[in-house]
Amino acid sequence: MVPEACHNGGMSFAPLRNDSFLRACLRQATDHTPIWLMRQAGRYLPEYRDTRARAGSFMGLATNTDYATEVTLQPLDRYALDAAILFSDILTVPDAMGLGLSFALGEGPKFEKVVRDEAAVKALEVPDMDKLRYVFDAVTSIRKALQGRVPLIGFSGSPWTLACYMVEGGGSDDYRLVKALMYSRPDLMHRILQVNADAVAAYLNEQIRAGAQAVMIFDSWGGVLADGCFQEFSLAYTRRVLSQLVRTHEGVTIPSIVFTKGGGLWLEEMADLDCEVLGVDWTVNLGQARARVGSSKALQGNLDPNVLFAPPAQVHAEAVKLLDSFGTPHQGPGMGPTHIFNLGHGISQHTPPEHVQALVEAVHGHSRKMRSMPGA
Amino acid sequence: MVPEACHNGGMSFAPLRNDSFLRACLRQATDHTPIWLMRQAGRYLPEYRDTRARAGSFMGLATNTDYATEVTLQPLDRYALDAAILFSDILTVPDAMGLGLSFALGEGPKFEKVVRDEAAVKALEVPDMDKLRYVFDAVTSIRKALQGRVPLIGFSGSPWTLACYMVEGGGSDDYRLVKALMYSRPDLMHRILQVNADAVAAYLNEQIRAGAQAVMIFDSWGGVLADGCFQEFSLAYTRRVLSQLVRTHEGVTIPSIVFTKGGGLWLEEMADLDCEVLGVDWTVNLGQARARVGSSKALQGNLDPNVLFAPPAQVHAEAVKLLDSFGTPHQGPGMGPTHIFNLGHGISQHTPPEHVQALVEAVHGHSRKMRSMPGA
Is B166 an 8 Å CB contact of chain A? Predict the structure, then answer.
C-alpha cells in the first residue's frame, strides 16, 4: 500500500486504501489480480435503473454531479471491485463541440448535427472545456465520495471512435458514411481526427486535474478499420492524444490505458504506444498477447461478457481459465508482466448481478492461489 | 487453360474457358490475379432489383431455378469477373431442418422456430437433401447457362454460423442467446454443431454432384467467439465438414475455401485445415498473412467493401495497394503462393455499379503488370 497525499484545488482527497489496480497498471507486484468491469455502473443493476428513472434520461444522469456520483459507487457497494470508473459517456466531447448528443430510451446515441462535408469539418474546433465542467465536477465529487476505497479511472472515446459517431450521426452496422469520407476525402478525415485528438487530450488532462487517477482511451471502433487505415486513422491519433497527456499529477504517476476492440492483430504496433496498459478483447489469447507485447505494458481484459449468462460454477471456471492463460503475473520488486482482469467489452444490461459476485470472487481467490503456487 | 470434359447425370457441361480462379485456388500460376466479389449478384445492381421485384421475395428468388440462374449471371454480363457464385443464402440448411426461414423486405433473415432448449436440440436432424433440391437444380442450371465462361462456386454457412441464427432466431448484436447456451450447456451446443456439420457436408457434396466446381464455407460469425471457443465450437466443426467433403468430381479437383470473418488472429490454426483457400477480411495484412499461413494455402480477399464508395481513381489506388501487399504471386510450373482478389465481406447494396468496373479493371491490369516486372 502506497500512502498518497492528494490535493486538488486546495481540496484533500483521502489516501488510497486499495492500490492494486494502479500498481498493476505500473507493472508492480500485487497480492491478487485486480478486477473492474467496463460499464460496471449500469443497467444490469436495479439500483442503477432506479437512479436513472429519477434522473429522467441518460444525459440527465451523466450531467448531474450527485447522480453520477451515486451510480459510480453502486457497483462498489455490491462487489469487491478494485477500481471505479467515472460514470459518463464516450461522446461528451463531440456533444461539447455542438453536435447535440441524445439517447432515446433503449436506443444508442444520436447526434442532432452530423459532420459529413467540407463546411462541417472546417467548422470543428476543440471545444471550450468549460462546456464539460459537469464531467470534471463529477470526477471531483466521485473521488471525494470514494474516500480512498479504490482509484478512480477517467476516460474518453478515441479520436477515430468519436469521428465514427460524428460522421454517421449514431451507431452503424457497416461504417459506410465514415469510411466513404475516409477513402474519398482523407484530408477531411485527418482534419476531424486532429481536432478530436487535441480535444480528447485537453479533456483527459482536465479529468486528471479534477481527480482521475488513471485514464482510459476507448477505441471502440478501431477494429472495423482495414489494416493500414487503422495505423493511419486510429493509432496515429491515439498517439497524438498520448503525446499531450499529463503523465504525473501532484507527484503521482497517472497511468493511461488504450483499448482497441478488435485490435488484436495490431498488438505489436500498439505495444509501441506511450501508455502503461493495453486493453484486449476476448478474441485474444492472453498468454500469446503477453508474449507479443513484451515487457513494456500491462494487459487488461478480456472475458467475453456473455460468460456471465452461464451459472456461477461456469463463470468461476472461465475466470480461472483466463487467469491461467495469462500465467503467473510479476511478483517481487521492480516491474514485470501484470494483468488487470476485465471483460472484453461492456457488461450486458441483461447480466444477472449475482453472477458478477461469482466472477469477482473467482478472480480474487484464484489469483491469490496462483501467487502462492510453487514455482510462481 | 485446362480443357475439361464435364458430365452430370448424363448432361455435358461446356469446357471451361477461364480457369484462372480454379488455378489460383490450387496455387498454380495464372497470368492475372482472379477476382470475384462476395454477394456479386445483389441489390447494388438495378437488374437484380428488377428480377427480385418479379420474384416477389428473396426466397421466391432463391427457390426459383430460372430466377436464381438469371441473377447469378447478371454481374458476369457487366464485369470481367473470374468466377460465378451460386445465388442462394447461407441459411437454406436450417430452413430445410424445418425452422422456417423468411426475409422481410429490408431486414435480415428470421426463423419461425428457434433452437434454445434440450427438446429443440434433440429434435434436430440432418435434413433430407430432397428438401434442398431447388438449390441443386439451380447449381446445374447455372452451370449450364455459364457455358464454361467461368467456374461456379457453391457454398454454405459454417456449422457455428448456422447455429448462431438457429439459436438467436435471426441476426444479433451481441450473440447473447447462442453464447449463453454455449457457456451454460456446451453439450447441447456440441450436438447442434455435429448435426450442422454433417448436414453442411451432405449439402456441399450434393452441390458438387450438381455441378459446383469449388465450394466455400462462410464462417461469418466465427470471429465473435472468444479464443479457445473459436477452436472448440467453430474450427473443429469446419474441420468435420471438410473431412466429409468430396475432393474430386469426375476426375477434377474441387477446391474448398474457408472464410472466417474476424478470424485473422487464428490464421496459423486455420492453415492446418484440409482446404485449399483461406478467405481473410480487411483487418488482415495480406503480406503478413502470406508469411503466417505458409505455402499450403491460397489466400482470398480482402478489400474493405467501403472502398467502393470512393471515386474510381481511389478504388484503383486501393486495389493496387492491396495487390502489392500480397506481393508477386507464384509464376511458372508447380505450386506456390497465390491470391484470389475479393472483398473482405459482401458488397454493399449502396455501391455504385461503375465503381465495381474500376475495381475489376485495376485488379486485372495491375496484377498483369506485377507479373511482368523485373524480379517478379
Answer: no
Beta carbons of A168 and A177 less than 8 angstroms apart: yes
**Contacts of residue A284 in chain B, CB cutoff 8 Å?**
227, 265
List the domains of chain B with CATH numbers. 6-371 (3.20.20.210)
Average pLDDT for runs of 10 along chain B of length 376: 46 92 98 98 97 92 96 98 96 96 84 96 98 98 98 98 97 95 98 98 98 98 98 98 97 97 98 98 98 94 98 98 96 93 97 98 98 78
Alpha-carbon distance A168 to nearest alpha carbon in chain B (angstroms): 14
CB contact under 8 Å between A306 and B350, yes or no, is no
Which residue in A187, A130, A193 sits closest to A164, CA to CA?
A: A193
Alpha-carbon distance values, B262 to A38, A226, B101, B280, B366 (Å)? 22, 11, 26, 8, 28
Interchain pair B265, A282: CB under 8 A: no
**C-beta separation of A271 from A230 below 8 A:** no
Pairwise CB contact (< 8 Å): B183 & A283: no
Crossing angle of helices A133-146 and A186-210, rounded to 10°: 40
Residue B174 a catalytic site member: no
How high is the ipTM of this complex? 0.94
Q: Are B161 and B219 in contact (CB under 8 A)?
A: yes
Say how far apart CA A163 and CA A167 lie, in whole Å.
Answer: 6
Q: Does A67 touch chain B (CB under 8 A)?
A: no
The one catalytic residue among B19, B23, B27, B39: B39
Q: Which spans in chain B are helix H?
A: 20-25, 46-55, 58-62, 65-78, 92-94, 118-122, 133-146, 159-168, 176-184, 186-210, 229, 236-244, 267-270, 286-293, 312-326, 353-371
- Residue A306 and residue B174: Cβ atoms within 8 Å? yes
Would strands A277-279 and A256-260 be described as parallel, antiparallel, or unpaired? parallel
